[in-house]
Design brief:
This is Integrase core domain-containing protein. With about 70 residues, this protein is mostly helical. The chain contains three helices and no strands.
Amino acid sequence: MQKALDTWLVTYNTKRPHQRRNMNERTPLQALIDGLLCRASQPTQKPMREPLTASSKQASINHETKAA
């Protein structure tokens, strides 16, 4: 049973074209690789906000307790 499932997964992901719109007859594996390559070629964006640090977390907790 496992061998049959493994064979089906390989066929599903690498041999048959994806049926979603705008996939241009690519397989799911090709779409994944294209997406990764596209993302890798884009410049790195700055995070939307600063990472949460211990001091900013404590400030947030203090603000929440004062509001309550």
